[in-house]
Specification:
Blueprint (H helix, E strand, L loop, with lengths): L54 E7 L10 H15 L3 E9 L8 H9 L2 E11 L2 E10 L4 E8 L10 E7 L3 E6 L5 H19 L6 E6 L7 H6 L3 E3 L14 E6 L6 E7 L8 H4 L5 E6 L1
Parallel strand pairs: 1-2, 7-8
Antiparallel strand pairs: 1-12, 2-4, 3-4, 5-6, 6-7, 8-10, 9-10, 11-12
Helix pairs in contact: 1-2
C-alpha cells in the first residue's frame, strides 16, 4: 500500500469532479469560452475501421494544441475530428492547458464540445502560468463513471511534478499519465508508484484495467521493463509515435480481467485532419475484446 500522504486527489483550475462544471475564481482570471459547435464526421470514412464487438482505447499527446497550428480553434476542431473519425470507446490525453497565460481556455472542455459526444475529466499535473497543465480522459457521454481519481506522484527532485488521472466505470478502468524522463531514478520512482497504486486497488479486478499515455520511454528501455512487471503492452510498439521514437503506450494490468488484442496501430492517416501538423506526437489505439 502507498502512504496516503503520497497520493492525493487534486483540485485544479477550471474543472472539478463534475465534468460540466467550471470554476472561475482561481488565481488567473480567464474569459469564459464560447460554446464550440460539434464537428460533423462521415462515420463511413476511416482508414482504421473497428471490428464489430471490439473496444477501442485511444491515447494522444496533443501538444497543448498549439505547437504547429497557432489558431486554437482550428487545431481543436481538427483534433476532435480525428478522434471522432477513429471512433474510440475511451480516450486518454496528454499535454493539456487549462486556463493559463499560454492558453486562456479550458482545452479539454473545448475538445469535448467540438467532438460533441464526450464527457471529460481533467487531472492537473502542474500549476502553470496562472492556471494548470496536465492529462485528461474523454468518455462517451452517459458512460457510468463510478470514480475519478487524480494522483500526484511523489517528487523529491528539481524536475517537473507528474501525476495521473484514473476513471473507473462499470465495465473498465483507465488511467492516463505523462511521465518525466529527466532522470532514470525519477522515472523509476513514478513507475513504482503507478504499479503499487493500481495493484493496491485493482489486483484481481473482475473488469479490465488499462493505462496509457506518453511514457517518454522507448521499447526495451529500463522504464518499459519496469512497467511490464505489472502490465502487458497492448499498443503496437513497432510503430513510431514521434518522428524518431515509440514513446506513447497503452497497457493492460496483468492482474485484472483478461482481454484479447484484436488490432493496434499508430494513426498516421485521416480523412478529417493531418496528424503531422496537429502535434509532435501521433495518436495510437488498441482494439481489444473483453
Amino acid at each position: 500500500m502507498i502512504a496516503a500522504a503520497v497520493l492525493f486527489s487534486l483540485a485544479f483550475a477550471c474543472g472539478t469532479d463534475n465534468p460540466q462544471e467550471n470554476i472561475e475564481d482561481g488565481p488567473y482570471k480567464w474569459e469564459k469560452e464560447k460554446d464550440v459547435e460539434p464537428v460533423v464526421i462521415d462515420p463511413n470514412k476511416t482508414y482504421y475501421p473497428k471490428a464489430a464487438g471490439s473496444f477501442r482505447i485511444m491515447s494522444y499527446n496533443v501538444g497543448a494544441l498549439h505547437k504547429y497550428i497557432p489558431l486554437l480553434t482550428d487545431n481543436v476542431n481538427m483534433v476532435a475530428s480525428m478522434i471522432n473519425e477513429t471512433n474510440p470507446d475511451i480516450v486518454g490525453l496528454n499535454e493539456l492547458d487549462s486556463c493559463n497565460q499560454r492558453c486562456n481556455q479550458y482545452q479539454l472542455k473545448l475538445l469535448a464540445q467540438a467532438g460533441g459526444k464526450w464527457d471529460y475529466y481533467f487531472g492537473k499535473t502542474l500549476d502553470y502560468r496562472g492556471g494548470a497543465y496536465g492529462n485528461g480522459i474523454m468518455a462517451p457521454a452517459g458512460t457510468k463513471v463510478y470514480s475519478v481519481q487524480r494522483i500526484r506522484f511523489q517528487n523529491t527532485t528539481q524536475y517537473e511534478n507528474r501525476g495521473m488521472i484514473v476513471i473507473e466505470t462499470d465495465k473498465y478502468v483507465l488511467g492516463a499519465t505523462h511521465l518525466d524522463h529527466s532522470s532514470e531514478e525519477y522515472i523509476q520512482s513514478q513507475i513504482a508508484e503507478i504499479n503499487a497504486w493500481f495493484l493496491s486497488k485493482y489486483r484481481d479486478s473482475d473488469i479490465p484495467v488499462f493505462f496509457c499515455g506518453d511514457m517518454n520511454a522507448k521499447p526495451g528501455s529500463e522504464a518499459i521493463q519496469a512497467i511490464q512487471s505489472c502490465w502487458d503492452v497492448i499498443s503496437n510498439s513497432g510503430e513510431k509515435t514521434t518522428t524518431n521514437n515509440t514513446i506513447d503506450w497503452i497497457f493492460h494490468l496483468k492482474r485484472s480481467a483478461p482481454v484479447k488484442v484484436v488490432e493496434a496501430h499508430t494513426l498516421t492517416r485521416f480523412y478529417n485532419g493531418d496528424a503531422k501538423t496537429a502535434s509532435d506526437h501521433l495518436p495510437i489505439y488498441a482494439d481489444v475484446t473483453f
